[in-house]
Design brief:
Blueprint lengths: L1 E7 L1 H4 L7 H8 L6 E8 L3 H14 L2 E5 L10 H9 L7 H17 L2
Amino acid sequence: MKAEIVSIGSELLMGELIDTNAPYLAAMLPNLGIHLQRVSQVNDDVELLSQVLREGWQRSDLILTTGGLGPTDDDITREAIAHLLEEPLFIDTNAAHINDSTYSNFAETTH
């Protein structure tokens, strides 16, 4: 199986953060019998990320993404994947309820 890792975030390209996720994942893949072909870093841009994912999809069996999934406006991974698949985003209310319950309990136990 061939794989690629795509690290997402302008802060990586600007040198504001060091990507520690890609090296960690890269070290794990051989143990799973997965051949890593490429690691790339992409700016917070929906069109560019969609293009990188589309190209990776043509080359590889597996694409691992890291970053770009937080709550801020520059976290565009969901939108880029929806754009690539030509599918709308939607909120699963059951999953949202579980998520809210889990994190509210977590917040209570950490204070």
